[in-house]
């Protein structure tokens, strides 16, 4: 018997809907033809079962329905079995603008384990808010551990520049700004950041802070940058995006994925004719420039925000209905369908995927494994 939370949707079942069908009017409508109550696993290809494993589960573990506390910058720290994350930095329920910074919090997966072991029907583990220095303004991206520290990419706020910051995960969370300009020019608003196999940091910069009214007009193109923490050298590796967002690499560092969330326009409104697209690139072995750009996938619901790649090369993206998963050739295999926007996710220990769904956090126990942190 197939468990209720494994929902197969055969693509042939909706390939032709007919002229009298009720079609979706916009990309922010959920595609749930079986009207199943989330959370559940929506399966479009049987190979998704190998990702889920024989006994998958997905549960909400904490929530705050008045505050989008779980939005971006997820970082799993194996030493303490904790996941760090940032609240929304200017969007709905974000409570952050020109007058208010966003916050960075964390949960303990040990608390999650204890609650699950107790068979709690309504798990609600505590969220700890970090007291970070004022140099850290509007955190939007995160990676690590990197040299035993968290790496945060900030959007900046008002005249305060966007920056890459190294933060001690232990109190008092002393911080070191590693980069806050491109040859004297402020970035627009840093979005996401990852460590490459080379040990260098790669980050995206876009105009989203301007579109959410907490940064001035953009002064640079929306681009992807490489930063060498040893030499201080920063260079552009990819350009010509509408709004570059999430970034991720395959385990060998040969392929890069970058999401373009042009369809989300902030105060300008959403525009479905703009990208909600993930692009794949080859990473040049010597220069690390991104080459051979091609369309990898287009998200049917919402926009593809944060990106992750598992050890088998499958690509995960936080979208408007949960986390969507494609194989390495861009075939949509399935979704962690939570029924709401999930901007980001991170792999934790033992095949555990932690999903940030704005006002909620979900934990999925699956077979797939994330790429271990690269710590030069």
Automatic annotation (TrEMBL):
**Database matches in Pfam families:** SGL (PF08450)
Taxonomic lineage of the native organism: Eukaryota, Fungi, Dikarya, Basidiomycota, Agaricomycotina
Q: Which residues form a coiled coil?
A: none
The name of this protein is Calcium-dependent phosphotriesterase
PANTHER family for this protein? PUTATIVE (AFU_ORTHOLOGUE AFUA_1G08990)-RELATED, SMP-30_GLUCONOLACTONASE_LRE-LIKE REGION DOMAIN-CONTAINING PROTEIN-RELATED
Domain SMP-30/Gluconolactonase/LRE-like region residue range list: 165-348
| InterPro entries in the record | 6-blade_b-propeller_TolB-like, Oryzine_lactonohydrolase, SGL
């Amino acid at each position: 018997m197939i468990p209720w939370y494994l929902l197969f949707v055969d693509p042939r079942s909706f390939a032709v809907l007919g002229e009298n069908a009720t079609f979706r009017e916009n990309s922010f409508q959920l595609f749930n033809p079986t009207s199943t109550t989330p959370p559940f696993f929506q399966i479009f290809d049987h190979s998704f079962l190998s990702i889920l494993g024989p006994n998958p589960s997905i549960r909400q573990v904490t929530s705050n329905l008045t505050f989008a506390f779980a939005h971006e910058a997820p970082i799993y720290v194996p030493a303490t079995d904790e996941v760090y994350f940032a609240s929304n930095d200017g969007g709905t329920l974000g409570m952050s603008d020109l007058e208010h910074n966003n916050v960075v919090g964390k949960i303990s997966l040990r608390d999650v384990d204890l609650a699950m072991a107790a068979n709690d029907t309504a798990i609600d583990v505590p969220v700890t808010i970090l007291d970070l220095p004022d140099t850290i303004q509007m955190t939007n991206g995160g990676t690590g551990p990197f040299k035993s520290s968290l790496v945060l990419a900030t959007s900046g706020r008002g005249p305060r520049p966007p920056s890459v910051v190294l933060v001690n995960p232990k109190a008092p969370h002393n911080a070191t700004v590693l980069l806050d300009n491109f040859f004297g020019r402020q970035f627009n608003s840093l979005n996401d950041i990852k460590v490459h196999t080379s040990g260098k940091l790669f980050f995206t910069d876009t105009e989203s802070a301007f579109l959410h009214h907490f940064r001035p007009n953009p002064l640079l193109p929306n681009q992807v940058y490489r930063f060498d923490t040893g030499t201080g050298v920063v260079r552009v590796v990819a350009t010509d995006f509408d709004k570059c967002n999430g970034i991720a690499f395959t385990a060998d560092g040969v392929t890069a994925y970058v999401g373009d969330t042009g369809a989300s326009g902030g105060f300008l409104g959403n525009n479905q004719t703009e990208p909600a697209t993930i692009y794949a690139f080859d990473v040049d072995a010597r220069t690390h420039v991104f080459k051979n750009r091609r369309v990898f996938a287009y998200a049917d619901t919402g926009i593809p925000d944060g990106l992750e790649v598992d050890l088998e090369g499958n690509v995960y993206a936080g979208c408007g209905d949960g986390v969507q998963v494609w194989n390495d050739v861009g075939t949509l295999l399935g979704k962690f369908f939570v029924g709401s926007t999930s901007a980001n996710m991170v792999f934790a220990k033992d095949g555990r995927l932690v999903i940030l769904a704005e006002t909620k956090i979900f934990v999925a126990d699956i077979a797939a494994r994330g790429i271990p942190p690269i710590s030069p």
